[in-house]
Every structure is written in structure tokens, then in C-alpha cells.
Amino acid sequence: MMKLHLEGKTALITGGSKGIGLASAKLLAQEGCDIVLVARDPNALSDAVAEIQTETGKTAQTMTCDVANQETPEKLVEQFPDIDILVNNAGAIPGGSLDQVAADAWRQSWDLKVFGIIEMTRHFYASMATRRSGVIINVIGWAGLRVDANYLAGSMGNASLVAMTRALGSTSPADGVRVVGINPGPVDTDRLEFLQRKKAEVLLGDANKWRELVAKLPFGRAAQKVEIASAVAFLASEVSGYTSGSVLEIDGGLSWKI
Ligand code: NDP
Predict the structure, then answer these.
(1) Cβ contact 9:32 at 8 Å
(2) 198 and 136: one domain?
(3) What atom in ligand 1 is closest to the CA of residue 72?
(4) Does 140 lie in the same domain as 238?
(5) Are residues 200 and 243 in the same domain?
(6) Which of 19, 138, 175, 219 has the fewest CB atoms within 10 Å, measured from its CB?
């Protein structure tokens, strides 16, 4: 428990049923937040609520919806107009080079991670600015800084989200709102094996050798979910009340490694 004094705040977390999103929801709940989880699979959402209840004693509201759907952000802001903390976390951009990522897969993944975040931010920012209070946290990814031709769609999408976070966060304090981002390196979630397999195929010629790549990461491992979630909770709180336009790398130094 960090004593971040988030009691009375409400946080909406997209992709909150699994991985980094669920870990963030648990920590925010522990710190006193009321929680709204957004994802597509209702069963995974129910399991997540049960986990949050067991581990924190708090319950959580859920919304079963697809953040890539253009109508979702408006529906969510209508249903939850008083959200204090928006965690834009849902996203999955396929790995591959320019000739490997099919046009429709590229567009679908950007509909979620790029346009989803733009539209969620557009809607919730307006409501926060009216109340002159709120925090938007974008979970982006280290390829936005350390661009990778073999993760081209992700590098480009993440770079645009870093730019959005920095630009919007530079003017949002005038509206009483903070906009911040986190750039995780590889994190130990369900996606880790999928992403590392693709990389191992390209770099080592054998997808089954993906664990060798993980062993070569800083500290000999991927980040734990809680190591990202802790930063989400810190950035959500007034302890970081002077932080806006910042994008925090949590990647064991990968972004700057020569
Ligand atoms: P997970 O795959 O573990 O979880 C993804 C979550 O997003 C699930 O709750 C999933 O639920 C939800 N989701 C997926 N698609 C949609 C959709 N269209 N609408 C609503 N919810 C959706 O992801 P991670 O925790 O690994 O990743 C979270 C974020 O962190 C992502 O944006 C990812 O790009 C980023 N990231 C992850 C890294 C990693 O190594 N894991 C590294 C760098 C960045 P459901 O399928 O039921 O909708």
C-alpha cells in the first residue's frame, strides 16, 4: 500500500480484465478507488471482478464493449460522466515488418490502440475539463521511442501516442487535467510469449527459442505486471500532481541501450 489517497476517486480502465489493466485495477482499488473495467469478454470481466474483490475487498463495475468501435467512447462517457482517472490500456498491435502486416490487421489494431485512445481521450478530456479535474494515463509501449522495423505498426502507433501524450499534456494543466503515459518494455502477460515468439522467429530463426530472448532482457526477465501497475497508481494520484506531458519508460533501460 503506497498511501496515495485515492479514496473517493473513480478509475475507468480499458482492457481491465487481464494483464497490466487488471494489475492496475487491483492496485487502484487497494488505494481506495472505485473501479470500472472495460473489455469485450464478459466472462473474463466477471473473473476479474471476483479477483479484485478477493484481493482488495472492493467490488468493481464492468462494461462489456469493444473500444475499437467508434460509438464506444461516447457511450462510456454518457454512462460514466464523472470518471476521475482514465487508464487507456487496451491494445494489441501485431508484430512484423512492412510487408508482413496485412492492411486490414494494421487498420484494426490502430482502430483500438491509436484511434481508440484518441477518441476515449477526446470524450473524457472534455468531461474532465468541465470539472477542471482529472488524469488520463496512456499505456503505450517502448517501441514508440525505440522504433523497430520488425514491429513497424506498433512502433508507428506508439510513437503517435507518445506525441499525443506530450502535446496534450503540455496544455492540459490549464484545464486542470493531467495527461501522462507509460512506455513498458516486455511485460510478463499473456502477450509476452506471442510477441517474443515473433521476435525469436526473426532474430533467431526459431520461434520456440523465445525464452532465450527473454533471458537476455535487462535483469534477465520481463517486467512484472505490478511494476507497471505501481506507476499507473502513482501517476493517477496527487502525489504526482505536477506531472503532465511525461511518458515514463519502464523497460529496464531498453529504450536507451546502445
Ligand atoms: P493483455 O493481452 O494481457 O490484456 C488485454 C486486455 O485488453 C484484456 O482485458 C482484453 O480483454 C482487452 N481488450 C483487447 N481488445 C479489446 C477491445 N477491442 N476492446 C476492449 N478491450 C479490449 O494485454 P497487456 O496487459 O499485455 O497489454 C496492455 C497494454 O500494454 C496494451 O496496450 C499493450 O500494447 C501495452 N504493452 C504491453 C506490453 C507487454 O509486453 N505485455 C509491452 C508494451 C506495451 P478482451 O479480449 O476480453 O477484450
Answers:
(1) yes
(2) no
(3) 19
(4) yes
(5) no
(6) 219
- Residues 32 and 154 grouped into a single domain: yes
Instruction: Please name every residue paired with 41 in a beta bridge, in sequence order, or none if there are none.
Output: none
Check pLDDT > 80 for residue 249.
Answer: yes
Reported as a pLDDT band with limits 50, 70 and 90, residue 237 is: very high
The verdict on residue 258 lying in a domain is: no
Residue 19 Cα to ligand 1 midpoint, Å, equals 7
What are 28's three cell numbers? 487502484
- What pTM value is reported for the model? 0.97
- Best residue among 65, 187, 250, 251 to mutate for probing ligand 1's pocket (most ligand atoms within 8 Å of CB) is 187
Three-state secondary-structure class, residue 35: strand
- What tens digit of pLDDT does each residue of 77-88 get? 999 999 999 999
Dihedrals phi, psi of 147, to nearest 5 degrees: -65, 145
pLDDT digits (tens, 9 = 90+) for 34-73: 999 999 999 999 999 999 999 999 999 999 999 999 999 9
Nearest ligand 1 atom to the CA of 67 is 19
- Specify whether 150 is located in the same domain as 216: no
Residue 95 C-beta-side C-alpha neighbours within 13 Å:
18
**Residues spanned by the domain of 74:** 10-187+224-251
Q: Quick one: pLDDT at residue 107?
A: 98
CA-nearest residue for atom 1, ligand 1, is 19
Mean pLDDT of 195-222: 92
Do 203 and 145 share a domain, yes or no?
no
- The CATH number of residue 153's host domain is 3.40.50.720
Q: Are residues 205 and 162 in the same domain?
A: no
Pocket of ligand 1 (CB under 6 A): 14-15, 17-21, 38-41, 44, 66-68, 89-92, 112-113, 139, 141, 184, 186-187, 189-192
Residues 193 and 138 in one domain: no
Secondary structure class of 131 (helix, strand, coil): helix
